[in-house]
Amino acid sequence: MANEIYKPGDKVPASGIYKVLHDRNHIQEHEVTAVLDEHFPPCNGCGKGAHPRFQLVRAAHHINNYKGFKE
């Protein structure tokens, strides 16, 4: 999973921190959090035909899904 590359519209396979790679003329690489089973979003600024790519840096349980915090 850590070496997989995801694109906008793909379902997030694991909650955690993802590296985002944009069109290099648009914005530098950065990190975001993403939540399991949501979808990776498109970028409004990458330009026509260009899409960001997402790569898992570190998986983490979302607090709402972690058994130790459930009511």
Identify the notable features of this structure and list them briefly.
three-stranded antiparallel sheet; mainly beta; 0% helix; 3 strands; 71 residues
Could you describe the 3D structure shown?
The protein is mainly β. It is built from no helices and 3 strands. The protein has strands at 16-21, 30-34, 53-59. A 3-stranded antiparallel sheet has the order 2-1-3, with no helix packed on it. Strand 1 and strand 2 (30-34) form a beta hairpin.
Low-confidence stretches: none
- The fraction of residues assigned to DSSP E strands is 25-35%
| Distance, first to last CA | 30 Å
Classify the oligomer. single chain
Helix proportion:
under 10%
Basic shape: elongated
Number of strands: 3
N-to-C series of helices and strands: EEE
What is the structural class? Answer: mainly beta
The biggest sheet amounts to: 3 strands, antiparallel
Outline of the structure:
By secondary structure, this protein is mostly beta strands. The protein has strands at 16-21, 30-34, 53-59. The protein has a three-stranded antiparallel β-sheet with strand order 2-1-3, with no helix packed on it.
